[in-house]
Amino acid sequence: MKKITDLQGSFELHNGVHMPYFGLGVYQSKDGSEVINAVQAALNHGYRHIDTAAIYHNEEGVGTGIKESNVDRRDIFLVSKVWNTDQGYDSTLKAFDASLERLGTDYLDLYLIHWPKGELSKETWKALERLYKEKHVRAIGVSNFLKHHLEDLLTSAEIVPMVNQMEFHPYLVQQDLVDFCKAQRIQYEAWSPLMQGNIFDLDIMKKMAAKYNKTIAQVVLRWDLQKGVVTIPKSSKKERIVANANIFDFELTEEDIQALDKLDRGKRFGPDPDNFDF
User: Fold this and answer.
1) Could you tell me the sign of the dihedral formed by the alpha carbons of 112, 22, 42, 49, in that order?
2) Integer Cα distance of 24 and 38 in angstroms
3) Whole-prediction pTM value?
4) What are the two backbone dihedrals, phi and then psi, of residue 132, each rounded to the nearest 5 degrees?
5) What are the chain's domains?
6) For the site Lowers pKa of active site Tyr, which positions are given (predicted)?
7) Which of 190, 201, 232, 246 could form a cystine bridge with 25, CB 3.0-4.6 A?
């Protein structure tokens, strides 16, 4: 397992691109000053990975935050996603261009299909492959794809997705899916690592936080990284953004990693990739 060293450390994707293993998620951060300030705070504190999506309606603010930070765009790993209503070949290409315009950039580091939509996602994937081959994006991937969604996509894909971004936390480990992705060299990534705040109620987390003299959030984010999972906790508060990243001066024991793994109960706090209506 790669050593987890610092905030700008990365995992290597199967195409050789380095993806920072820790980033800022901006889901539910309001466009305008809220998201601009969050992005600036993160970048100026040392973050180099920002994750947004068309459906978050804050790409313009993210772009402004990047421009107004003191960090060069080339040093930032910028991610967005195509929304379900834009899936399909031509509409995905248009949606990508619209995201670039809102973000004020001429390329993305990673572009994801936000949710699996069966046959439609195969057309979407062909568009992503084209964007990748034409070097408009450095890596392509998917989000919320379970094993059977990935297997279906791989029947027609030329390029294996580089990333699969999933709801991932101690109540939803999905180790079989993690292992499948690893076998296919698809980098696993966590969204909602803090269980939408529910992680703070678990006694085991309180005990571990006391043991390591860390916050509960810091313990679970460290668990993500030690499991080889990229993580992008979302926050719009500067203090939280700084605190979330303070996880490089300690290490969980193998025993504690396994204890958190054992909490898995297949519980989702977000939508089910097999049963959603949007």
Assistant:
1) negative
2) 9
3) 0.98
4) -70, -45
5) 14-261 (3.20.20.100)
6) 81
7) 232
Confidence of residue 3 (pLDDT cuts 50, 70, 90): confident
Our CA angle for 10, 28, 38, nearest 5°, is 55
Q: How far apart are CA 72 and CA 69, in angstroms?
A: 8
Which amino acid, 76? I
Q: Which two tokens stand for residue 127?
A: 């568009």
Residue type, 127: A
Catalytic residue among 21, 56, 132, 188: 56
Which structure tokens are listed for 84? 């379900």
Residue 146: closest CA among 240, 274, 265, 278 = 274
pLDDT of residue 223: 98
Residue keyed to tokens 């050593």: 3
- Least Cα distance to 78 among 96, 62, 101 occurs for 62
Confirm if 18 and 10 have CB atoms less than 8 A apart.
yes
pLDDT class for 1, splitting at 50, 70, 90? Answer: low
Average pLDDT in the 5-11 region?
A: 95
What Cα–Cα distance (Å) separates residue 55 from each residue in 80, 109, 208, 214?
Answer: 9, 18, 36, 34
Confirm whether 56 is a catalytic residue: yes
Kindly report, residue by residue over 44-61, the tens digit of the pLDDT. Answer: 999 999 999 999 999 999
